[in-house]
Amino acid sequence: MENYQSLTGITPTSSEIMVKDKLLVGPKASRHLNKGDGLSDEEWRLLPTLFITFKNNRAYLDRTDNNLIYLFPSVSPTEKRVIRLVINVNFKIDQKKQINSLRSAFKINSATLDTKNRYHLL
User: Fold this and answer.
1) C-alpha separations of 16 from 24, 37, 68, 99, 101 in Å
2) Contact (Cβ atoms closer than 8 angstroms) between residue 62 and residue 86
3) Is beta strand 119-121 parallel, antiparallel or unpaired with respect to 58-62?
4) Ordered per-residue pLDDT tens for the chain, 122 residues
5) Other residues' Cβ atoms within 10 Å of the Cβ of residue 4
6) Cα distance between residue 89 and residue 105, in whole Å
7) Integer Cα distance of 120 and 65 in angstroms
8) Nearest to 84 by CA among 108, 113, 66
């Protein structure tokens, strides 16, 4: 199986992922909540656990911008959609500091990425 570095030539500087508060309480968060595809408080709290228990979940490379896309099952047993996280690898905070940055988080139908040529399954 190919990995992110071999496909993009980019080596992530760390395994940390920055989450800006605007994803939780800003206009983007409100838009997703109003559409009904926003993450619940419990899902936000459990995000670190989802990464720790990542086995058998899916990660994709977005070929247009080299973002990583992770798909996780919802923490709700009645939810049929999956959590979609978009991560910008080595996002530049300033001229000296780079960190992986969560760019968006919302729910989608699980088959959404499987049919698009834009994404490469990692």
Assistant:
1) 18, 25, 13, 7, 8
2) yes
3) antiparallel
4) 468 888 999 999 888 999 998 888 888 888 888 898 999 888 999 988 888 887 767 889 999 999 999 998 888 888 889 999 999 999 988 888 899 999 999 999 876 676 568 888 88
5) 17
6) 15
7) 12
8) 108
